[in-house]
Write the structure tokens for this entry.
Amino acid sequence: MTTQQRTYAEHATQTAQSYYNSSDADNFYYHVWGGEDIHIGWYNTPDEPIAPASRRTVEKMAKTASGLRQDWNVLDLGAGYGGSCRYLAKTYGCRCVALNLSEVENRRDREKNREQGLDERIDVVDASFEEVPAEDNTFDLVWSQDAFLHSGRRAEIVTEIRRVLKPGGQVVFTDPMRTDDCPDGVLDPILARLNLEDLACPAFYREQFSINGFEELGFDEHPELLVQHYQRVLDETVLRHERGELEGKVGDEYLERMQKGLRHWVNGGRNGYLTWGIFHFGTAR
């Protein structure tokens, strides 16, 4: 990576941190996007509420990982409000580290952990997933949901994952991606809002994980869920804004920008330029 590319990537990270630390973003994601689980949902019906659909994604990812059990150490990269770690700790008894860049989200995460008596099972760490503050060969499973897109250094993320995983460890993650054959320029409105040069694509992740010695164990691809989720969030945003339910919590200017951004995601997905799904990789023992 050149000096100019690294500077741009670091700026993207700082932009993401500032964005998620803002009160508008914090209140929007917590009250509208899904509460504990702020990622793409797995919908059973077109009008299903966002929160249960988002929790269903967590459940499906947990079932994707082979052999989850109580003695596993799990690292969640870009953990948001930590809903996934709480689910894994309560359901499987795992010991979890919730790593996240936003100190504001992390405060909510710690509060939820205390409320649910999970302080001893979950550590919340303020850090970037390009530079994980953990020893080599620490984790049995690395987990992430819709977070890597915010990085301009995704190849370094994969290298860090390989470093901190134990031999035989697994990776289960989702990420909104461009399709492998996406034309240049068509996603510029999305990239401009994220302050990124590009999104990853499935071929990128397959190449990077292969380079780092991983075997692909599966990719459950569902681009239609990306479209459905962003449309559901858009519909909910418009409805709550019209009802005045977000007054005093989220500013009008933020909501207008958010609605515009959500429409770009919906259009990109409907035009076949975006994809999403659950990736599963494993390392050799």
Observations:
- The chain has one domain: 3-283.
